Amino acid sequence: MSRIESDHSRFRQIVRGRIKRNLKKYMSQGELIGRKGKDKVSIPIPRIDIPRFRFGQKQTGGVSQGDGEPGDSLGGDPQEGEGTGKAGNTGGEHTLDVDVDLKELASIMGEELELPRIQPKGQETLETIKERYTGVRPVGPESLRHFKRTYKQALKRMISTGSYDPSNPIVVPRREDKRYRAWTEVRQKHTNAVIIYMMDVSGSMGDEQKEIVRIESFWLDTWLRSQYEGLESRYIIHDATAREVDQNTFFHTRESGGTMISSAYKLCLNLIEESYPASDWNIYPFHFSDGDNWSVEDTTECMRLLSQGIIPASNLFCYGQVESPYGSGQFIKDLREHFASEPRVTLSEIKNRDAIFGSIKEFLGKGK
Fold first, then answer.
1. Which residues contact 97 (CB under 8 A, 6 or more apart)?
2. What's the domain range around 176?
3. Is 296 a member of any domain?
4. Which residue among 135, 182, 208, 242 is the one 20 to 30 A from 121 at the CA level?
């Protein structure tokens, strides 16, 4: 390994260590979500400076050189400066933005939270066929012609036959000179999974509660994408009624109506039955609410939909109750009463942003 490669590897290890030590802080902030790219995320870490000497101006006097008497001050101008505010005794905080691959971030997350790798259910041999270019051949469509290899073949032919003129270096390929890209079909085995996010957007769910859901969803998504090659995400919002929306609408919708949780569960079950057969898919419904529901009758309907439809089809059903000054918090108590012994149900109370770290560990710690 070259010196540059060794230094780069050591730098990455330092960065990895810094991220692990500050992971809980990153998980409580929404800053990373705005820095996310397709495959990477930009993470701000304290700047890492390499120690080095700094030399001053020549012949400026000072200790051990120039004029001076014992007891003379070593400071500069004794007069006060013109700045406002009080002097401090600590340095400013300098940060460095480092691009980290999302898979590496998931690996750090798994180590720090001690998350087990997920054991997929259903068929683990779903296949997709991809074309991979592996070489060249003398026949093929013109759209796949390899111009560089064609030119080299024509040049070799003209040189070997003595028809190449260095003073007039024109190379004209013939039919036998042409070369084309060749491909082979590669079968890739992978497991498909879907996350179905559901969120209460009624009047009792404020901006802070929705921001907590947004942050937690980012980390859940990051981990599950590291476990599955094919992962889809669907989004359902509900108050008294439910509807499927895109990601942006999911996190930025404001409603003021009442709450009927069963409307979201019915729509979730319809999605599963129509698009994600349980025999072929690993299914992860995540529901976030402040715990309010319209009536006892609707809560009873929710328990029926869960026990008879959603839970049997899912790897894991997760309910996160985000604390709100307007929510009663009753729904998580009802779920505990009905599904206390169900291993495929995980419940978590999220009081504030600092609780996101523990909530994610509760959701993903079973390895399902």
1. 35, 42, 43, 44
2. 127-187
3. yes
4. 242
